[in-house]
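Same chain as my last thread, 480 residues:
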Amino acid sequence: MEKNQQFTTVIEDMNEQGEGIGRVDGYTLFIKDAIIGDCIEGKVIKAKKTYGYGKLIRILEPSPFRVEPLCPSSAPCGGCQLQAMSYRRQLQFKEDKVRNHLARIGGFQTEEIPMKPIMGMGAEKGGPFRYRNKGQFPFGRGKDGRIIYGFYAGRTHSIVETEDCFLGASVNGQILESVRSFMEDYKISPYDEVRHEGLIRHVLIRTGYYTGQIMVCLVINGTELPGGQLLADRLMEIKGMASVSLNINREKTNVILGEKMVYLAGGAYITDKIGDLSYRISPQSFYQVNPVQTEKLYNKALEFAGLTGGETVWDLYCGIGTISLFLAREAKQVYGVEIVPAAIENAKENALLNEITNAEFFVGRAEEVLPDWHSVHPEEKVDVIVVDPPRKGCDETLLHTMLQMKPERIVYVSCDSATLARDLKYLCGAGYGLEQVQPVDMFPMTVSVEVVCLLSKLKSDKQIDAEVDIDEFDLTAGGE
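reply #2:
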């Protein structure tokens, strides 16, 4: 097909970015804003040899799964990809995504994948909306010169003005309007990415889902905010406000947060709960954005760990110790590893806050800390390893060390089922069996899905001790 050519197709599936997949005479087209089951008319906007990208012109026959999005900005905004699809069908899409990755990338037989039905989000506190306890809102100028805020449009850094995100806390709009009003009153410019000029880059808002405490952090391209104390005083009048701070980021970068913090009012953190455990959260902390589903996920990870009170457990990529502390209540000893020093400080504080004494935390890269520890303590038995890596999955060295340590069980928590499948292929080819796969919908209305898996050590020493060709698998690729 050629650019600008019009076509008609039925959407058969959706890809990782939430684009509908249709075919015309065997030629594959990816069409934004089309969902599974739609019959649409479109126009080719980019054509390659075997596939292309299309623009939705009109829906000829809507999908039986199509619903009216709650948010008027859901189509241009890059935050929600599935709001036009019924929630029940979203869950089926995510189950299929995990199963397909495990089969196609992991090499598992589809009918033998031990997958449980996905854990969806019910009506808890308005779910599957209003679940996000964190929002990062870029500020800029609209075409008319006004100060605007919102979210980036998909695959761009163009801001889609959004007064209220229906995934976030309802108080966010009040906070953002207060910041915009302050900027207009004091003639403070928003950041311009191209020119690397202007002061306010982002406003980060965290809300304690259960405690109601609120934190606001303004990311600035400078060392101070003129009138900042006045703004802080205004924000502290909002019910629940517990912390107002500045984050200094003067680099020309897409990374949102810099390293230096300046606190203007309130404390340096807020507190929230997961289950009956309390956690202190700073602006730079990693903390799951959906506490309702996080509790389900962590309880499942705890179940998979099979703890009886006498086990030694390693929690890799532990963040502020959220999973570590869940495990420590049932284990003999837990060791947590995280590369971010501030997160480890939070983890230690959280252990004290919850009166947990059998959790020890290390700062460093998991792929360095674990091999170093194992080389010094090669005979020390480790019963369970829990790993919750970033989207890129586990490092090759880390996977190899995990196999050398021979824990009875590995609990793998993943936010990317493609790299999960790649890593499971490696582990299950070297002495471990895949026992259970549990998807959890942590991010309703988006294409993302969380998965927790249980791997158990096979009984055959021959299989466990077999030499592993670690170059056989591409452990750096994204999986697609």
